[in-house]
Amino acid sequence: MVVAKDSHGYAVRVELVVLMAWLMKDFAWVLLIPVLAWPMALVAPCLECHNVLLGWRLDSSAVRVHGVASLLWILGNVTWMSSELLWDSSSCYQKGDKRSIFPWHAGPSAGANEDLYWKGVMNARILFALALLLLASFYIVAACGIMRSRFTNQQVERASSESQSLVWGIVTPKVYVMVFIGPWILKDVCWTFSLFAPALTCSAIVFALAMDSYRRFRALPSAVEMTWVAGNTVWLITELGYQTPALLPRVFAACFLLLGVALAKHAYDKTSPDLAASESSALIGDRSS
Questions:
Q1: Among the residues of the chain, which ranges form H helices?
Q2: Mean pLDDT in residue range 219-233
Q3: Which residues, in sequence order, are CB contacts of 145 under 8 Å at separation 6+?
Q4: Which pLDDT does position 276 carry in this prediction?
């Protein structure tokens, strides 16, 4: 995510539109509505790419790394979604029954094919792994201090960097609201391996990060993200906890996602388009800064 405490204007509005696209993609996916899911699967990566490129020239290294990781995640997520809608029958057929539990979804669009489905899931895992490797590499380098001279006080901002405190003394607000993407990707990896407890733990971590970001900075996207995480967590519990297709819990999850869309739209309408968002302090600073 690319928002900080002082971020208003065009960049924040783009961020909210990106979130709306993510939410609508998940809404269509959880309810197995391909006619809506695939258009959103096209829109969401395009908007995310635009979001990443929006401040690329001025953004710090951490913002770029987290932005690219988010883009890799959404591409992997769309790959996984497409594989399920095309070839997976386990999400709509109960065992031993060839009738879908969804009145509007008869079954996989291209016919049930477990081999092709798992090939698609493997491709998604590769994209997730690339994103996690990118993040892990950056964190290790940053922790060792090798890149400190390159990303400390790298930007000259409109707002004074002294006016904005660092989270834990080392992370800028703009970066802090983006760090959720690591555990979120790990949650999807665990989900593809049907690792229920680790995936649920990752969801809890992401929710806590989003809630803390909103508490600290009143960042509007963080409030929207909480509904997104809540919807996905209900979906996760339905799919891995029940281990059988269930319509009503998926509808319940979709309600959280739709609530997120409404909140994002409300936040979008409240945000002024006149000011451009930018990084407002050092990416990672030492405790004396």
A1: 10-30, 34-54, 61-87, 114-144, 148-151, 173-176, 181-192, 196-217, 220-236, 242, 247-270
A2: 93
A3: none
A4: 40
